[in-house]
Every structure is written in C-alpha cells, then in structure tokens.
Amino acid sequence: MTLESIPLDGSNGVRIEILESSDTTLVIRWVEPGRCHYGEQRWRRRSAHSSGTCAVSRRKIRRGDPVFKPAERPAPSNASAMICAEILEPLLEAA
Predict the structure, then answer these.
(1) Which residues pair with 46 in a beta bridge?
(2) How far apart are CA 3 and CA 20, in angstroms?
(3) What is the DSSP string of 76-93?
(4) Rounded CA gap, 62 and 50, in Å?
C-alpha cells in the first residue's frame, strides 16, 4: 500500500514518517537530529528479540512482541529501534 506520508512524533525528538506499508514491511523516513537521517529505510515486521521501548509510543516491548525493526545491512545507527506493531495497525487501516 502506498500512503500519503503518515508523520509520527517519536521519542527524543525523532521524526518518523511512514511512506509505504504492507503487512510485513514499512518504508520509513527516520530523522534523528544530530545523529542520523534515513530518507527511505525499510523496516520488517518480526518478533522482538529483546525487551525495549517503542520509538513512537514509549510503550514497553517484551521479547516476542510483534514489532517493526530496521531491516538494512549493514546495521544502521538506529538498528536497535523498534516500533510496536499494535500501535501502527489503526493508523495503517485508516490510511
């Protein structure tokens, strides 16, 4: 599905825009001032390999929860970032 960009406010000043989506893949623009900028970064849906925090909602993520994570190689600066899949479902359905 191609979307009109869905902007999201991430934690710590991160700006996230969902540019495209499917059930298993997102294309995201990730801007982290002073650290990194990815204009079109591919993220894949998977189970969290470790506990963490959602980059958008700051919700706790437990190992095994469904998340989206950067899928690029070599590992990007934001490789440890995760977005909880459950918080994106209503946004993606509405688009």
Answers:
(1) 67
(2) 6
(3) PTTTT-BEEHHHHHHHHH
(4) 7
Distance, in Å, from the CA atom of 7 to the CA atom of 29, rounded to the nearest integer, reads 9
**In the predicted structure, residue 3 carries a pLDDT above the cut 50:** no
Q: Which amino acid is at 60?
A: K
Entry pTM: 0.85
- Domain borders along the chain are 2-94
Mind listing the pLDDT tens digit for each residue in 10-45?
A: 767 889 999 998 889 999 999 988 888 999 999 999
The number of helices, as runs of H, and strands, as runs of E, in the chain is: 1, 8
Judge whether 19 and 7 are in contact, CB under 8 Å.
no
Does 59 have pLDDT greater than 70? yes
